Amino acid sequence: MAHHGDETPVTMDPRFSAKVYPRKDNIFQHKKSLDFDSIRSKIFVERNKDKYDIIMEWVAFIIIGVLTGLTAAIMSNIEEKITEFRRNQADDIIGDEPDNLVEGWLFFTGISVGFVLVACAMTIFWGPGANGSGVAELIGYFNGINYPNVIGFETFVTKVFGVVLAVVGGLCVGKEGPLAHIGANIGAVVVYLPLPRFDWFRNDTYKRNMMAAGCSAGVSAAFGAPVGGALFAFEISKPNVFWKFSVIWKVFLSCALSVFTLAMVSSFMKGETIHTINSSVLKFGVDDIAPPTFMAIPGAIAVGVITGLLGGFFVLVNSNLGLIRKKYIKENWQKLLEAAFFSFATTSVFYWLPSLVDDCQDSTEVLLSDNAELIVAYSCPKGFYSPLGTMLMNTEGDAIRSIISGFEGPYGVNSTNWHLFIFAMTWYFFTIVTYGVWVPAGLFLPGIIIGCAIGGCWAEI
């Protein structure tokens, strides 16, 4: 009798497979289920579990939160340092001479393509389980599917460094989704630490709880939102019933410690003093939000409708592009070439767009504020900066900071609705065509960036 593993894999179009029964594919038969039943066996139930075991379980969740926040802080610091180096070097090469733009472009695109090729090569040849965001794989794992390569040393290392290199390489992807996968890997590893009583947790049932905590802590660190992070893992694991009230509290503790650790470590790395921790400060650098009025409701509806339509179009186009990739881009060299092409195309467009929109702004007031570190002179004369260059050549978080700062007063980056429209459409186009390249990549922050720019456009009308 033939085993499932000996059969030729048969796939179905994911767009229509839910309507066909019985199913014609057999891919699901090649996957194994996790063992959630052994914990209910008599020998396990009759094991003695004292207060020390309960305390060590809380310790495990504390370790998960701290390690996830520490990892997120290190990733963020690496991204900022590399992006700052790339931006400042290009700025120095250009100076205030438009004749130096080509030389600056060669540096800007060359170093970006190099980063992306390293990320892509790591994903293809060493850690294929790190490809994409990892959220879909976690949904399957939490619901009992032992999806291959979701958890592992190669997956973790590739995810951490691959997503950072992909982002600094200019691809329109985010690292926020992959942080959920990174946190889940940390949660799976913690149960194997050589600590007293941790052998109690070395089974699929407890490991799933730890992975859920790590996933939630990763999302919390990404957005500075402990409650939102806990709800995220709860949402993606529905309709599973492993979420007990006690588990939710432990997961929330991991999320809170992840955000706290991120804030403390980030402040230490930047040489800042310990100040009031605010979730919005962690990600977008904004802590003074004007209270909304009823006049904001029409704008919220309009922006919601516009972004909803853009989101639907994104799903339609990107899904079909995914099928095309699967059909035509099969060889490893093709995957490397595709990643290098999109890095080159994206960074080239980001680099040359500010020169086409020649609108330099006086930097006198901006230099007096915390936003001084954001501005990019590009080819503007001394004492001026390029608003569009500032948005396109900074980190993704700093791009959002620069957009929001323009609505906070004269000390912000002064972007017009024309700048914001060009920025939003450029990001939207490259996000659609880029997502699916063989690198660790997320979609959370690109969506926020596009929505932020569209909201800014509406506010400027």
Please tag this protein with its features.
61% helix; 461 residues; Clc chloride channel; mainly alpha
CATH topology of the largest domain: Clc chloride channel
Neighbour order of strands in the largest sheet:
1-2
Shape verdict: globular
Provide the CATH architecture of the largest domain: Orthogonal Bundle
Task: Determine the mean pLDDT.
Answer: 86
Instruction: Provide the low-confidence segments as ranges.
Output: none
CATH class of the largest domain: Mainly Alpha
Helix percent band = 55-70%
Number of DSSP strand runs: 4
Q: What would CATH call the homologous superfamily of the largest domain? A: Clc chloride channel
Can you offer a commentary on this structure?
The protein is an all-alpha fold. The chain folds into 3 domains: 4-30, no CATH class; 52-274, Clc chloride channel, CATH 1.10.3080.10; 298-460, no CATH class. The protein has 16 helices and 4 strands. The strands form 2 sheets. Strands 1-2 form a two-stranded antiparallel sheet. It is globular and about 75 Å long. The model has no long low-confidence stretch (mean pLDDT 86).
Please sum up the structure shown.
This protein is mostly helical. The chain contains 16 helices and four strands. It folds into three domains: 27 residues, no CATH class; 223 residues, Clc chloride channel, CATH 1.10.3080; 163 residues, no CATH class.
Write the layout of secondary structure elements.
Elements lengths: L31 E2 L8 H4 L5 H44 L6 H25 L9 H8 L2 E2 L6 H16 L7 H15 L13 H20 L2 H11 L8 H25 L9 H6 L11 H33 L3 H25 L4 E2 L21 E2 L1 H6 L3 H10 L11 H18 L9 H17 L1
Antiparallel strand pairs: 1-2, 3-4
Helix pairs in contact: 2-3, 2-5, 2-6, 2-7, 2-9, 3-5, 3-12, 5-6, 6-7, 7-8, 7-9, 8-9, 11-16, 12-15, 14-16, 15-16
